[in-house]
Design goal:
The protein is α+β, with helices and mostly antiparallel strands. The chain contains eleven helices and 13 strands. The protein has a six-stranded mixed beta sheet with strand order 5-4-6-3-1-13, with helices on both faces. It has a four-stranded antiparallel beta sheet with strand order 10-11-9-12.
Length: 389
């Protein structure tokens, strides 16, 4: 993959100078959805799919970017001193947002750079293409210009830029997973404190299977920001009754004892999901560490039901994928993953059931929706980095 990008870079921008190669992964979240901006826990892993890039420093204030995934866009030549927030949601706006965020946070880069990029990850699939795109310029600028920032700060820059430059009020999970991924591990992250633990997946007889509904989502133009506002309204009401900073500070018992402080019934449902999902995530990681995959899978299923009914970010196609998966022998658990309104499900499937899972899901999904789905076997990958081999 990177060889193709390097070849294209040399065609577009020439073969001389210090040319460097980079990769930033997408992510799949095993459990803990819409908890990251509610002060809860998440449990994602970086994927072996993502964005590959080749870059070289320039001497002026220009950037020249070309994305092989969107060749019709051509080479984008931009002045880094003119970047201004917008909500266009185009791939190069996510790149520009990170450079803008660097300047906003006192890390202005001294010059621009040339870059060619290519993704092997399906856009709009809920595997966090946007965070992968954001971590590419973060790691390029960190490396090309020797910026004194670590990968946690790269994750924060990605979130800051998406919030403030692109108008998407996401939490930290996607960027953190892309920046901080570790091979064969998932990240148990407390989003309130950014304390984290790498948890080995240790799936000896199972595979993580991602199923793409082929229903694309566009979160910034969807109800995602509404969900965040509804959660914040619920939190403000609860804070009049109980001393908490985030919804993640409550457990199930604490929520049930104080839920009537939330005036709006919709906001109450959103808060219920945030609280219960956070506790599900904590219990799921405990179960995985004990080797109790059955309990982990049960919690995955419960997560989907809550996302469908209380947070209302699923869609009919995702519900078909999850509900049909639950019927198949050898499926440990299955749920929607990502922001919702389309995208993918993630399932843990016994090795000897993977073929039947794909066959049965494909058949029923086509019958019930008229759509074809796609499957990917997930491999937990290292995070965003310069490629040196």
């Amino acid at each position: 993959m990177i060889e193709k990008v390097l070849e294209e870079f040399k065609k577009k921008f020439g073969a001389d100078g210090d040319i460097r190669c980079y990769f930033a992964p997408g992510r799949v979240n095993l459990i803990g959805e819409h908890t990251d901006y509610n002060g809860g826990h998440v449990f994602p892993c970086a994927l072996s799919m993502g964005n590959y890039a080749v870059a070289r420093k320039r001497e002026d204030r220009k950037v020249r970017w070309y994305n092989m995934t969107y060749p019709n866009d051509g080479v984008k030549e931009l002045d880094i001193d003119t970047f201004a927030p917008n909500n266009n949601g185009i791939w190069y706006d996510y790149q520009a947002g990170v450079i803008w965020a660097l300047k906003e946070n006192g890390r202005e880069i001294p010059s621009g750079y040339d870059m060619v990029m290519l993704s092997d990850m399906p856009a709009g699939s809920g595997l966090s293409a946007s965070a992968s795109i954001e971590e590419i310029p973060a790691v390029i600028c960190r490396d090309l210009f020797d910026l004194p920032i670590d990968m946690v700060e790269c994750a924060k820059l990605g979130q800051y830029s998406e919030n403030k430059y692109n108008g998407m009020n996401c939490g930290i999970m996607d960027q953190f997973a892309s920046a901080m991924g570790k091979k064969d591990c998932a990240i148990f992250l407390d989003t309130a404190t950014l304390k984290f633990d790498y948890v080995p997946l240790n799936l000896k007889n199972e595979k993580i299977v991602i199923t793409n509904s082929k229903v694309k989502h566009k979160l910034a133009g969807s109800a995602y920001n509404d969900r965040r506002r509804e959660s914040e309204t619920a939190l403000a009401d609860l804070q009049k009754a109980v001393d908490i900073k985030t919804l993640g500070d409550l457990d199930e018992k604490g929520f049930e004892a104080n839920k009537d402080a939330i005036k709006d019934e919709i906001c109450k449902k959103r808060a219920k999901h945030a609280v219960y999902e956070n506790q599900r995530t904590i219990h799921a990681v405990e179960a995985l560490k004990k080797g109790d995959l059955e309990a982990f899978g049960k919690l995955m299923n419960e997560s989907h039901v809550s996302l469908r009914d209380d947070y209302e970010v699923s869609c009919p196609e995702l519900d078909v994928l999850a509900e049909e998966a639950w019927k198949i022998e050898g499926v440990v658990g299955s749920r929607m993953t990502g922001g919702g309104f389309g995208g993918c499900t993630v399932s843990i499937v016994k090795n000897d059931a993977v073929e039947e899972f794909q066959k049965q899901i494909s058949k029923v999904y086509k019958e019930r929706t008229g759509l074809d789905c796609e499957f990917y076997i997930a491999d937990a990958s290292d995070g965003a980095r310069r490629l040196t081999d």
